[in-house]
Amino acid sequence: MNYLAHAWLSFHQPEILVGNMISDFVKGKKRFEFNEAIQKGIMLHRNIDTFTDEHPVTKAAKQFFKPAVGLYAGAFIDIVYDHFLARDKNEFEDEGLLQFSQFVYKILEENSNALPEKFARIFPYMKGDNWLYNYQTLHGIEKSFGGLARRAKYLDNSAEVFAAFEKNYEELQECYNEFFPAVKQFAYNELKRLS
């Protein structure tokens, strides 16, 4: 799962959301430097990632991208899941996605002292370009794919994987439709377990 899903699967709990959003920037025992609620968000993020990576639907979805990006397929699928979540009317009605995006940015700003340095550097771009809201558009996904390709060590560009995304759009939508209710229930149960 990518930023939008991790934020949404924090169930509107601000400090859980902060931990869930920054988890990839907090290595090993560094999590103990945060308060208990943020630590729970960090652990929730890690458990969601494990659940996602091991789920049979995610493994099947990766096959659409493996010819183009090999082992990076999972990272691109995370972005794809965010795209379909952003367009999911069962999760976000009308202006719900815009309001939720603004809520996330507000919470992160209010907790700016807890943001790791690397996350704090990308946050202005996330907010300024409204990444969370723009996951719903093909242009937003194309930009996200391009950003991932630039950060990856062994990828030249994202054109081939974006072409695979467009070609297999309906099949990937079906993967999301099957997977998301399962990960949402998992995250809800996991948050209760961590509390």
TrEMBL record:
<keyword id="KW-0444">Lipid biosynthesis</keyword>
<dbReference type="GO" id="GO:0008770">
    <property type="term" value="F:[acyl-carrier-protein] phosphodiesterase activity"/>
</dbReference>
<keyword id="KW-0443">Lipid metabolism</keyword>
<protein>
    <submittedName>
        <fullName>Acyl carrier protein phosphodiesterase</fullName>
    </submittedName>
</protein>
<keyword id="KW-0378">Hydrolase</keyword>
<dbReference type="GO" id="GO:0006633">
    <property type="term" value="P:fatty acid biosynthetic process"/>
</dbReference>
<dbReference type="InterPro" id="IPR007431">
    <property type="entry name" value="ACP_PD"/>
</dbReference>
<dbReference type="Pfam" id="PF04336">
    <property type="entry name" value="ACP_PD"/>
</dbReference>
